[in-house]
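Posting this for the archive.
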Amino acid sequence: MMKKFVTRLGLTAGVAALALGGVSGTAQATPGAAYVGPGYPNNPHAVWCVQHLMNDVSRQYGQPTVDEDGVWGPKTFAAVKTFQNRFWATSSNGADGIVGPTTGEYLLSYGDSYYGRGNYCFWYLPSPDATFMPVAGTRLD
């Protein structure tokens, strides 16, 4: 009887330790989140996230939006380039229309918080880490 109790106690403690270990530590974006854009696999969920988060920012600034259909096309590509020019692209690192870690972070940070940072789209867009904060001097208009 005592052996069974100790075994259960040990298993319970082990499961609790694993659960606590799984929620502690630094939050990181999914390292395997693929780039989104021309020449990439373009998971429909990832494309929808790009479209949705970009549209949220576009609405904030009275800019045109794209269909949120999860399909990568010329309008989404052009909208990503416009987004990049608005937030971080310069003459030395121009907008390329590809959602990599930098663009992914800006989308997750400035787009719809319900789907962005730490939520649904967080798992589909590439980003360096979850602690990203926009740098001072970011162009907002």
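DSSP finds four helices and no strands in the chain. The radius of gyration is 20 Å.
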